[in-house]
């Protein structure tokens, strides 16, 4: 389950898994508590939308303040391209071409934007390092989670036994219908054929959870959001359910200074 908090009307969720770690900031936004008008109502945190940039800036400031990072929190993110490139960063900035970020820099928040794809946040307690991952179906079949953990292992000495991982809110397995060209790239355990349609439902949460387990992260150190961007569209943005005319959430993680 998740702990739901609100500050200054900004609604967000903190994964229960991370609450014991007082040196960590980790949160997932919802769509409530911002200034954006429809169809981005209201806490749109996505830069690459047609929402007014001033609205997004104010929404981000409100979100960062609400989660305890401060309105002008040092923040690193990237223009995501549904690929498998990983950025190790020690400074804030808006980068390009990366779908995962890793850091061991205290005082720096890293994050990914989502509106159906899977956000994954990882904390390596032993080596004080974090990761934020954006895994759509391409990133999932490309094993971005595994590649990110391997990068953390190489750079920080990360091992699965000391990692805590949160698989965030995304499209659910009963809403993500794909054609055979996509379905064939997923193992049978993560897809279910839709009768007489040629399509299949794919479970992105389960597929990414398997990567975490295979790296050696204990089951009790993995939390999966019970929410869906489609089924809970009143609380979360969904690119598919809203036909592309919608905002974006942020999933962020960082070590306190």
Overview of the structural elements:
This is Purine nucleoside phosphorylase. Pfam families: Cu-oxidase_4. With about 260 residues, the protein is an alpha+beta fold. It has a single domain, classed as 4-Layer Sandwich (CNF1/YfiH-like putative cysteine hydrolases). About 20% of the residues lie in helices and about 30% in strands. It is built from 5 helices and 16 strands. A 7-stranded mixed beta sheet has the order 1-2-3-16-8-4-6. It has a 6-stranded mixed beta sheet with strand order 5-7-10-9-11-15. Strands 12-14-13 form a 3-stranded antiparallel beta sheet. β1 and β2 form a beta hairpin. The longest helix has 14 residues. The radius of gyration is 17 Å and the shape is globular.
The name of the CATH superfamily reads CNF1/YfiH-like putative cysteine hydrolases
Helix count, per DSSP? Answer: 5
**What value does the average pLDDT take?**
96
Q: Spans with pLDDT under 50 lasting ≥5 residues?
A: 1-8
Q: Report the sheet with the most strands, covering strand number, pairing sense and barrel closure.
A: 7 strands, mixed
Number of domains: 1
How does the overall form come out from the CA principal axes? globular
Q: Any idea of the CATH class?
A: Alpha Beta
Rg: 17 Å
Strand content: 25-35%
Structural class: alpha+beta
Beta-strand segment tally: 16
What CATH calls the topology is CNF1/YfiH-like putative cysteine hydrolases
Helix content: 10-25%
Q: Can you name the CATH architecture?
A: 4-Layer Sandwich
Distance between the termini: 28 Å
Organism: Spirosoma endophyticum
GO molecular function: copper ion binding; hydrolase activity; S-methyl-5-thioadenosine phosphorylase activity
Keywords: Hydrolase, Metal-binding, Transferase, Zinc
Protein name: Purine nucleoside phosphorylase
């Amino acid at each position: 389950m998740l702990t739901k908090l609100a500050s200054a009307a900004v609604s967000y969720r903190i994964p229960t898994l991370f609450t014991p770690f007082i040196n960590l900031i980790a949160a997932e936004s919802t769509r409530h508590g911002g200034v954006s008008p429809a169809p981005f109502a209201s806490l749109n945190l996505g830069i690459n939308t047609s929402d007014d940039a001033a609205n997004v800036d104010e929404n981000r400031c409100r979100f960062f303040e609400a989660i305890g990072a401060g309105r002008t929190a040092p923040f690193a993110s990237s223009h995501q391209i549904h690929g498998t490139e990983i950025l190790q960063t020690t400074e804030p900035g808006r980068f390009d071409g990366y779908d995962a970020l890793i850091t061991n820099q205290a005082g720096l928040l890293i994050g990914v934007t989502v509106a159906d794809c899977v956000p994954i946040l990882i904390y390596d307690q032993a080596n004080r390092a974090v990761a934020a991952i954006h895994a759509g179906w391409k990133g999932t079949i490309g094993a971005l989670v595994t590649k990110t953990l391997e990068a953390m292992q190489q750079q920080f000495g990360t091992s699965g036994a000391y990692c805590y991982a949160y698989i965030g809110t995304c499209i659910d397995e009963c809403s993500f219908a794909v054609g055979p060209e996509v379905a064939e790239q997923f193992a049978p355990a993560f897809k279910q054929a839709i009768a007489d349609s040629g399509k299949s439902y794919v479970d992105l949460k389960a597929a990414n959870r398997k990567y975490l387990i295979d790296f050696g992260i204990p089951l009790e150190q993995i939390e999966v959001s019970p929410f869906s961007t489609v089924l809970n569209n009143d609380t979360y943005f969904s690119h598919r359910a809203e036909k592309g005319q919608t905002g974006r959430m942020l999933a962020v993680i960082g070590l306190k200074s």
